[in-house]
């Protein structure tokens, strides 16, 4: 491989996204790992990635140390990835999605037993919560949060073993989702893009909804059927009584809407909706009718998702079509699993998990938004790490 990097869209991308890594060797190993994710067929083990980008017998060890042990900060990389993605299309929505990473044993950071609604099974897994930008007909990942169960943050031995920073504690799903929204707010250009999320299994979803309202951020969110809502009407104390979203929407209007699915296909479907308030709304602070709950009318043998939105001023066709975009996030995570090595990493340490998720997200976003191959002539990988440097990495 040549000593001088060739100018290309790929090198321009890596120059921007990895510009804040402190050392030149870190930046070059980052580019090598990213190239490996893009050109290695099949399983993306570190050894196979190294074999795809270097003939050096020590490249696999150096790549592994770069991802698992090198103390580079992933947050500036995600920041630059967000900025790069913004410049490659109009951002129409922000989406919050999940990645379920099955694991064997109990050594991987944050691993626990959790029910996966997609597979319908309880798995031994890590759970990642991701922020995605909706660009054209794609959702691309630009940030992640590892959901750490309380036992992992309360146990000092587990924290040391997984290298969990002292300032990282257990936070519920809704709080992590709000943190991702705040991060997007800080990193992106001003936009009215609504938040799309599925929190239909979160009993505290009302805290997420209230947080979005306080931030004046519009949303379309899937919620539990039993979410308590207030029928629109008298605000006097004790009346009306909160009722479940499922029971209340049954009394709503049924409309025929033109639904645009995530794949662009359009079809007419029936949707039932009703205007509501949330318990705790204060007169004079929230609008009279701040929210709409809606659900698709399906045969009794099938269960439809329940959605709530602040976009009461928009046509129901548009709002229902936004809800349908939820599957684009699922599609993105599935693509990262099949083609970009999302599941091909042990993920035992907290920094290692974030490093890998950052690099996989960068590879997926680059490929999906440019559709360009990695150049055939890659810049050389840096020299293998010295024994002294390896030792210092283990001490970090």
From TrEMBL:
Native source species: Streptomyces flavofungini
Pfam hit, one: DDE_5
Organism superkingdom: Bacteria
Protein name as catalogued: Transposase
Chain ranges of the Transposase IS701-like DDE domain: 17-236
Residue segments, region Disordered: 232-251
């Amino acid at each position: 491989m040549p000593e001088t990097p060739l100018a290309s869209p790929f090198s321009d991308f890596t120059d921007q996204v990895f510009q804040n890594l402190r050392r030149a060797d870190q930046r070059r190993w980052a580019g090598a790992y990213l190239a490996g994710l893009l050109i290695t067929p099949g399983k993306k083990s570190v050894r196979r990635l190294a074999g795809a980008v270097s003939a050096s017998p020590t490249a696999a060890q150096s790549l592994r140390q770069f991802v698992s042990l090198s103390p580079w900060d992933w947050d500036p990389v995600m920041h630059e990835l967000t900025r790069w993605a913004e410049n490659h299309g109009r951002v129409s929505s922000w989406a919050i999605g999940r990645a379920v990473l099955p694991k064997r044993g109990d050594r991987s950071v944050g691993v626990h037993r959790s029910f996966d609604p997609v597979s319908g099974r309880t798995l031994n897994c890590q759970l990642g919560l991701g922020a995605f930008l909706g660009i054209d007909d794609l959702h691309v990942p630009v940030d992640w949060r590892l959901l750490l169960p309380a036992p992992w943050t309360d146990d000092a031995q587990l924290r040391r073993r997984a290298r969990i920073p002292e300032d990282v504690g257990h936070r519920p799903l809704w709080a992590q989702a709000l943190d991702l929204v705040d991060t997007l707010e800080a990193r992106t250009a001003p936009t009215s893009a609504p938040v799309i999320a599925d929190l239909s299994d979160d009993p505290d979803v009302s805290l997420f909804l209230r947080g979005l309202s306080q931030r004046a951020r519009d949303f379309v969110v899937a919620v539990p059927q039993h979410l308590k809502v207030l029928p629109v009407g008298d605000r006097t104390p004790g009346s009306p009584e909160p009722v479940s979203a499922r029971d209340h929407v049954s009394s709503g209007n049924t409309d025929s809407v033109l639904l645009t699915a995530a794949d662009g296909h359009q079809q007419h479907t029936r949707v039932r909706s009703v205007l509501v308030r949330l318990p705790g709304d204060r007169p004079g602070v929230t609008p009279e009718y701040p929210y709409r709950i809606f659900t698709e009318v399906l045969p009794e043998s099938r269960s439809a998702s329940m959605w709530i939105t602040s976009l009461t001023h928009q046509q129901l066709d548009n709002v229902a079509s936004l809800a349908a975009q939820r599957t684009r996030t699922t599609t993105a995570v599935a693509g990262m699993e099949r083609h970009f090595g999302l599941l091909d990493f042990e993920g035992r340490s907290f920094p290692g998990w974030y490093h890998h998720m950052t690099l996989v997200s960068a590879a997926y976003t680059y490929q999906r938004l440019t559709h360009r191959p990695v150049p055939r002539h890659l810049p050389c990988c840096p020299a293998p790490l010295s024994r002294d440097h390896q030792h210092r990495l283990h001490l970090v």
